[in-house]
Specification:
The chain has 141 residues and is α/β, with parallel strands linked by helices. Helix content is 52%, strand content 21%.
Length: 141
C-alpha cells in the first residue's frame, strides 16, 4: 500500500495500521484525488519543535508538519506527527487520543492536498473536512 507508518524518537505505536491505510486511501479518493506515497512519521515534541524551527522558522511546539511531494491530484508526502502533542491535545479538547491522532493525520493529508489553515475561514473549512474524514472512519470500522 502507498501509506506507511514509522516512528522516530518515540514509543508510539499506531493500532489498526491496515485499517488506517485503507481509510486514508478511501478518504483521498472520496475527494477525487489519488493516493500516492504517504509516509506518517510519529515523533517526539522535541523533534517536531526542532523541525519547526529548522524548516519553518517557528519556535514553538506543533502537532504536525508536512513535506508535500504531490503532483497534481496524486497526493504524496511525509507527515511528521508529535505523538506527545496529540496526547496533550486530546486532553485539552476532551477527545480520545486515537480520535485526535486520526484528526491530526487527516489534517496533515489536507495540507498535502494544498489546504491551508492560516485564516479562520481556512481553519473552519479544514475542520469540516476533518470531520467528514472521521465520519468515514466510523463507517469503516
Amino acid at each position: 500500500m502507498p501509506v506507511t507508518f514509522h516512528t522516530e524518537k518515540t514509543e508510539y505505536i499506531l493500532k489498526q495500521k491496515l485499517k488506517h491505510k485503507q481509510w486514508v486511501k478511501a478518504w483521498i479518493e472520496s475527494q477525487e484525488a489519488f493516493c500516492g506515497q504517504i509516509c506518517f512519521i510519529y515523533t517526539s515534541n522535541k523533534q517536531l519543535r526542532s523541525m519547526n524551527q529548522e524548516f519553518l522558522n517557528h519556535n514553538y511546539f506543533t502537532d504536525v508538519i508536512t513535506f508535500d511531494y504531490s503532483e497534481g491530484r496524486v497526493i504524496s508526502g511525509d507527515v511528521f506527527i508529535s505523538a506527545e502533542q496529540v496526547e496533550i491535545n486530546a486532553g485539552n479538547y476532551g477527545t480520545e487520543p486515537e480520535e485526535e491522532m486520526r484528526r491530526v493525520m487527516i489534517h496533515g493529508v489536507l495540507h498535502l492536498m494544498a489546504y491551508n489553515d492560516g485564516t479562520e475561514e481556512e481553519r473552519e473549512s479544514m475542520r469540516q473536512l476533518e470531520n467528514e474524514a472521521l465520519h468515514l472512519w466510523l463507517k469503516m470500522v
